[in-house]
Amino acid sequence: MDQFEKQFVKMEVQAEIMESLMAGSTSLSTLEGEVNSWMQQVADDYGLEVSVGLPQFEKQFVNMEVQAEFMESSMAGSTLLSTPEGEVNSLMQQVADDYRLEVSVGMPQAAAQAILVKTTEKMDEDDLSWRLAELKAMG
Length: 139
Description:
Layout: H1 3-23, H2 28-46, H3 48-82, H4 85-98, H5 112-138
């Protein structure tokens, strides 16, 4: 079977399942039986290909999950570091005012590292501004 035939078979099975679900005549056990029979048919048709490809797929899937979790945690950390605390507080106050809410005084504060990073970035900007002014004066 070529790739198009495989996709066509999958689409036919999915269409049948959807039609029977929409008709409301299919119980969960019947649906499970249809899926199992389809999986068995695919396993019989492709035999060794499926048994060889499945462990590789599982390995890639696990790797993808680990990478996604790492990226999510990294992005969450970088958002914390890149968002100025003043802007966050201002936005929270604006939302509180719009909905007549009271902002709690005991809100958790951003980590000290975030403040240090922004201070360093500000120093870098000041240094660059100073160097630019110096170059303009020379030229």
